[in-house]
Write a structure and sequence with these properties.
Aminopeptidase, 13 helices, 415 residues, Alpha-Beta Plaits, four-stranded antiparallel β-sheet, eight-stranded mixed β-sheet, 17% strand, single chain, alpha/beta, 3 domains
């Protein structure tokens, strides 16, 4: 109990001190009318300014741009909006207030646990690294057909763990990984919901036909940092040579077309820093080694992110470049899209990552499709469309988890 009280006090201190850098930052939704307006918005971020962070943007003007803006950057953004006659709305007036609100909810859950009061389900809150690891351990203890595999270790010596869920090692494999970007909390949360359902409700039919390899948290160092210091941190936490900045964007670090094009950066301080070489990062190496070992059995690869509600196919490194199975991937993605919309009234868009969003080389999905030749490989950008973005409240975990369950079922039985 004493240890728990000390841990709780430590967490409270972090909650009070962390994320002060987002005081007065706004989340803004901007409605560009064409390519020139979109380029003007992008130019703000591309100049390397710390005052702007585009959270979501696509090539069309069907959906608005979501952007985080610092207090110092607000006046300049307002001038750009007026110059191009663009409309906008502020979705979150103060990001720190929203971050603190969610932290207080988590703190309340910990207090209830400390005093052994009845608490909400684990799927009603975002879990820490330690809580995710405890859940993974419970799955393996409770179910004899669940094994834990440590794929590798991070720069801070945390394990990258996979759940192997299998009743027949001859069956084809569905691979799911999440949390490659630290701030995208809904992805690991939805993945754990999926695992729970696979092991408790309705999963028996799945396990007659498939094996599952599931990595709930690819980037545990970065994820831990989002709980302790910077809620909106994206990269891992590896040191960078000769730089004062830390971390690599793991989804720019895979070997296929590493460093190609504009959707990646050689600058260590940038959020999309690709690392100092292909597969330079321990987390990337861990995934690559296991995926390569299993490539002949993997029939479906899902790389989970947030946000935007997209079902994305390869390739991300360049427009109009597609794998040989592209048409089949699109057709299957559209089946998933229709089923999610029918069941939950959420609209996902389907297409290649570079055609719908932007060019980004060194992605995991491109490597799996282009090097390992896995027949169906997707990136899924989960909810929402931008109202909360990376700060999606935990009340959405079950909804997004159900969407993931439905998506995997449709994918699996239509391959």
């Amino acid at each position: 109990m004493r240890y728990f009280v000390v841990s709780l006090c430590t967490l409270i201190l972090h909650i009070l001190c962390a994320n002060a850098l987002y005081e007065g930052y706004r989340l803004v939704r901007i409605f560009p009318r064409g390519a020139n307006e979109t380029k003007a918005i992008q130019a703000l971020e591309h100049r390397g300014s710390p005052h702007y962070d585009i959270w979501s943007i696509d090539r069309s003007t069907e959906r608005p741009v979501s952007m985080m803006v610092s207090p110092e950057g607000w006046n300049n953004l307002s001038r750009i909006l007026n110059r191009f006659n663009m409309t906008s709305e502020v979705l979150i007036e103060n990001l720190k207030t929203e971050i603190d609100r969610q932290a207080r909810e988590k703190n309340s859950q910990l207090r209830l646990q400390m005093f052994r009061t009845k608490v909400k389900s684990e799927h009603d809150t975002y879990r820490t690294v330690e809580e995710i690891e405890a859940a993974v351990d419970r799955y393996a203890r409770k179910h004899p057909f669940v094994q834990i595999e440590v794929l590798g270790y991070t720069a801070e010596n945390r394990p990258v763990r996979a759940l192997k869920i299998s009743k027949d090692s001859s069956k084809p494999i569905i691979w799911i990984d999440a949390g490659i970007h630290a701030r995208e909390w809904i992805a690991p949360a939805a993945t754990l919901y999926f695992v729970d359902r696979l092991l408790t409700r309705g999963g028996q039919a799945f396990l007659k036909d498939f094996q599952f390899f599931i990595v709930p948290l690819v980037n545990p160092d970065g994820y831990h940092y989002t709980h302790q210091a910077d809620r909106l941190w994206r990269k891992n936490r590896s040191p960078t040579a000769g730089e004062h900045c830390v971390g690599v964007d793991l989804n720019r670090n895979f070997p296929l077309k590493w460093g190609y094009g504009d959707g990646t950066s050689p600058r260590a301080c940038d959020d999309i820093y690709r690392g100092d070489g292909p597969a330079s990062e321990l987390e990337s190496q861990a995934l690559i080694n296991k995926l390569t070992e299993l490539k002949d059995q993997i029939v479906l690869y899902l790389n989970l992110h947030s946000f935007g509600q997209f079902i994305l196919t390869p390739y991300g490194f360049a427009r109009y470049r597609y794998p040989g199975n592209y048409n089949n991937m699109i057709n299957l993605g559209e089946l998933v899209q229709k089923e999610i919309q029918k069941r939950y009234n959420y609209v996902y868009r389907v297409g290649s990552a570079s055609d719908l969003l932007y060019e980004a080389s060194g992605g995991a999905e491109d490597f799996v499709a282009g090097v390992l030749n896995v027949p169906y490989a997707y990136t899924i950008e989960l909810c929402d469309e931008g109202r909360y973005g990376f700060l999606l409240p935990p009340a959405y975990i079950r909804t997004v988890g159900r969407q993931l369950w439905t998506a995997v079922k449709v994918f699996a039985y239509n391959i």
